[in-house]
Amino acid sequence: MDTVEILYDTYLRSRKVTTDSRGVEPGCIFFALKGERFDGGAFVEQALAGGAALCVTSWREYEGRERCLVVPDVAEALRTLAVRHRASLGISVLGITGTNGKTTTKELVRAVLSRRYRTSATRGNLNNHLGVPLTLLSIPADAEVAIVEMGANHPGEIADLCRVASPGFGLITNVGRAHLEGFGSFEGVVATKTELYRHLAHGGTAFVCADNSLLVDEAAKCAPGMTVVTYGSSTASQVRGSHVADVPFMRFYFEVADCVYTVQSRLLGGYNFQNCMAAVCVGLRFGVDPFDIKEAIEAYEPSNQRSQLKATGRNRLYLDCYNANPSSMEAAVASFAAQEWPRKAAVIGGMHELGADERAEHMRLVDMLAGCGLERCLLVGPEFDGLALPAGMTRCADTAEAAAVLRREPIEGALVLVKGSNTNRLWTLEELL
User: Fold this and answer.
1) Smallest Cα–Cα separation from 294: which of 264, 315, 316, 271?
2) What's the whole-model pTM score?
3) How far is 363 from 383, CA to CA, in rounded Å?
4) Which of 345, 351, 219, 228 shows the shortest CA–CA distance to 281?
5) Does the pLDDT value for residue 234 go beyond 90?
6) Where are the alpha helices (DSSP H) in 27-101?
7) How many CB atoms lie within 10 A of CB 245?
8) With respect to CATH, is domain 3-74 assigned 3.40.1390.10?
9) Structural domain 308-432, CATH architecture
10) How confident is the model at residue 185 (pLDDT cuts 50, 70, 90)?
């Protein structure tokens, strides 16, 4: 029996895999990955003691050891198992990528499709070269539809993830200026994200926002091999809707035949209109009843500091601090500026991986914030060093310094935008706001 079949035979007995020795369960496969700061090979004995049915490692000293499989590349072995398992799945797989909104759109689509199908989806943001294989291997045996989120920070990554997940359906939320250091340019971002369309050009279906001319043009390049289903506010949309208001949560409607369905979401920001319409479009294509779609979106509550509104003893927090790049910053700041509130403040984290564009993008961000009528604004991170700041803006080296400032000079009675990436750890300031 070759390596792939040994792996798959073992996997089918429990359908459990882990890359963390602390998560080992009896009968699972432990993949001893090697990272920059750790080497899973050092935890093989622990995994064996925990009841792992098989430990996959590159450490040669385990050659011939019972319940151990020595391979040249553990990550590649994980990928190979995922590809083998994907080939056996007779279900619809939807791949979702984009610069912003991937996870929110994934969760909205999951909520909608779950009204009719047993639906599996990426947990959290396991969307990279390790997360996608783990997602595929976590799909329950009785699943009817799977949603696979795909992230990328360098050229060719989406194409590679498509080779693993082999989606028959695809959705690109948008394309913006993010990870420019890895992609080299905005054109590099476009080329990489639209690798999903090129994968689908061999007979798949793409859900395309008709309001996004770039995506419409890129999708057209893959026709007629790829079926295109459009959504948005444009009259050219096959599934049409309109953003109505933010009060403070986003409200919109969508049309099906001669009926109009009004949806009061629990999401902040008009930028979530397209995420919701994407879920509507996918749901209709998969035969979910329009009223069930409406109810599913209305019941969805955001989590993980994404588009959340929280009331504290001091303020109301507009939390969007899981991911940050120039396009998501612009959308969040614009949405926040449109909120009617007597007093406003902001805590903003620096944006990462922008390469040569870093200074210009942060200067642009400062200019946008200056137009929001903020009483106070804390700018957190070294990315703001050396920039000329308007009155009311305070530069903080890191989150710890921002916490010290908030303890000395609390913000009270305000609507506070908290926007940054997860690595900024701005969510740790919530108790001080």
Assistant:
1) 264
2) 0.88
3) 10
4) 228
5) yes
6) 44-49, 74-88
7) 12
8) yes
9) Alpha-Beta Complex (3.90)
10) confident
